[in-house]
């Protein structure tokens, strides 16, 4: 086959890129190593910056999100068992947030690509980019034991942290940065009405988070050791521990029920530079991972795709390489901003294994200062709501 942009990875980043390119008459083919059922079944992020909301609308996949998503004005933080603060992003940054699950976004994007005749090759094995520094790159892959070749002008690596795209860049040309956190998040999904707002909790027993996906779908997390065994956490124990980390009035509002998904996610920060090598461009988790504390992972993938789609459109429509040449530097500025914010919020809200009493008191002092300073709240709101695209 021959196409203009070969896309490795059929998650939200790859699907959204293909959709945006299609709307401007640019051809693409998506290669995904997993089955569609697997991709659509992954439980991931669900808090969208308003910039992400607008990109999805521009891509023609916002109708269901606008109908079922939950727009809200900010996020709550509670600490010391009683103190609380509302991070009002609408008041201080002029932007709302949208609770709408990545699973639903993926479903919407698949539906849009199918309706427009998009080419998505599922269960593509042994995907390998070739000649990425030449003017004629191509990708080989296997389906049903047969090897195929996809010729293209450019390759977009949207295949996640464990994908083949980033390792295709020579180690001598790639620099990586990583920070691993000494704990994880034990999370459950339940078909119960969520709290009216997203609430973070800093508690002596550990961090907790009450989040939402829809009016009848809640997502809850508690900080846990990395060696935690899921079998040791039946639903009853989880609900008891979760409620113990929130003030009594909030704990009493949490509606419990059977979990429909339960998992443990380790926390880490990871950034790879550059995000372009020859004709290969990285986007999303292929280039960076951030702790979920800042709700930036999916939003960063969307901003990458926004920049990358604009670069391809500018090239094919205007014959300009301006945005292609600046893609990596531009995307990385936003990536590092989100990585710093996610790190800062993680340090502020979690209890670390080696934390001293001095560390705990300074942490609570930081929270007290945030609650008392409008300037500090404005800064946090600007970052949490998402800075404008360049």
Q: Care to describe what's here?
A:
This protein is an alpha+beta fold and 390 residues long. It folds into 2 domains: 5-70 and 97-178 and 268-347, 3-Layer(bba) Sandwich (FAD/NAD(P)-binding domain), CATH 3.50.50; 181-267 and 352-385, D-Amino Acid Oxidase, subunit A, domain 2 (D-Amino Acid Oxidase, Chain A, domain 2, 2-Layer Sandwich), CATH 3.30.9.10. Helix content is 37%, strand content 29%. It is built from 12 helices and 20 strands. The protein has helices at 12-22, 36-41, 50-58, 63-68, 89-93, 102-115, 235-244, 248-251, 297-318, 322-349, 357-372, 374-385, and strands at residues 5-8, 28-31, 47-49, 70-72, 74-79, 83-88, 97-99, 119-121, 125-130, 138-143, 146-151, 154-157, 175-190, 198-202, 208-214, 217-224, 259-273, 276-277, 280-282, 288-289. It has an 8-stranded mixed sheet, sandwiched between helices. The longest helix is centred in the C-terminal third of the chain and has 28 residues, at 322-349. The protein starts with a strand and ends in a 5-residue tail after the last helix. The model has no long low-confidence stretch (mean pLDDT 96).
Tell me the number of structural domains. Answer: 2
Number of strands: 20
Shape: globular
- CATH class term of the largest domain: Alpha Beta
Biggest β-sheet strands, sense, barrel: 8 strands, mixed
The CATH superfamily of the largest domain is known as: FAD/NAD(P)-binding domain
Summed over residues and divided by their number, the pLDDT gives a mean of 96
Any low-confidence stretches, pLDDT <50, length ≥5?
A: none
CATH topology of the largest domain: FAD/NAD(P)-binding domain
CA-based gyration radius: 21 Å
Percent of residues in β-strands: 25-35%
Q: Under the CATH scheme, which architecture of the largest domain would be assigned? A: 3-Layer(bba) Sandwich
Structural class: alpha+beta
Helix content: 25-40%
N- to C-terminal separation?
35 Å
Task: Specify the number of helices.
Answer: 12
Q: Which strands sit side by side, in order, in the main sheet?
A: 6-5-14-15-16-13-17-20
């Amino acid at each position: 086959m021959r196409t203009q942009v070969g896309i490795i990875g059929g998650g939200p980043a790859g699907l959204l890129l293909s959709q945006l390119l299609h709307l401007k008459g640019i051809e693409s083919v998506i290669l995904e190593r997993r089955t569609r059922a697997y991709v659509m079944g992954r439980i991931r992020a669900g808090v969208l910056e308003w910039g992400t909301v607008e990109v999805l609308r521009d891509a023609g996949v916002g109708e269901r999100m606008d109908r079922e998503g939950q727009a809200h004005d900010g996020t709550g933080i509670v600490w010391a068992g009683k103190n609380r603060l509302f991070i009002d992003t609408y008041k201080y940054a002029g932007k709302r947030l949208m609770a709408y699950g990545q699973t639903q976004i993926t479903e919407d994007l698949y539906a849009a690509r199918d309706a427009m005749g998009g080419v998505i090759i599922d269960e593509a094995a042994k995907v390998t980019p070739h000649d990425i520094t030449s003017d004629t790159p191509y990708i080989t892959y296997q389906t049903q034991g047969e090897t195929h070749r996809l010729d293209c002008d450019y390759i977009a690596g949207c295949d996640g942290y464990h994908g083949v795209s980033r390792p295709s860049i020579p180690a001598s040309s790639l620099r990586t940065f990583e920070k691993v956190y000494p704990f994880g998040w034990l999370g459950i999904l339940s078909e119960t009405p969520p709290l009216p707002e997203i609430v973070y909790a800093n508690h002596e027993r550990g961090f907790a988070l009450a989040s939402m996906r829809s009016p009848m779908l809640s997502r809850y997390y508690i900080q846990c050791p990395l060696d935690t065994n899921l079998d040791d956490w039946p639903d009853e124990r989880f609900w008891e521990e979760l409620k113990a980390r929130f003030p009594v009035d909030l704990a009493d509002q949490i509606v419990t029920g059977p979990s429909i998904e339960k998992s443990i996610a380790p926390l880490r920060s990871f950034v790879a530079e550059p995000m372009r090598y020859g004709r290969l461009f990285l986007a999303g988790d292929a280039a960076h991972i951030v702790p979920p504390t800042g709700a930036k992972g999916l939003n960063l993938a969307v901003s990458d795709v926004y920049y990358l789609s604009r670069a391809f459109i500018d090239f094919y429509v205007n014959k300009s390489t301006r945005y292609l040449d600046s893609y990596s530097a531009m995307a990385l500025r936003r990536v590092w901003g989100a990585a710093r914010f996610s790190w800062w919020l993680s340090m502020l809200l979690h209890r670390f294994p080696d934390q001293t009493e001095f560390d705990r008191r300074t942490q609570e002092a930081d929270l007290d200062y945030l609650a008392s300073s409008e300037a500090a709240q404005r800064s946090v709101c600007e970052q949490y709501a998402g800075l404008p695209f360049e």
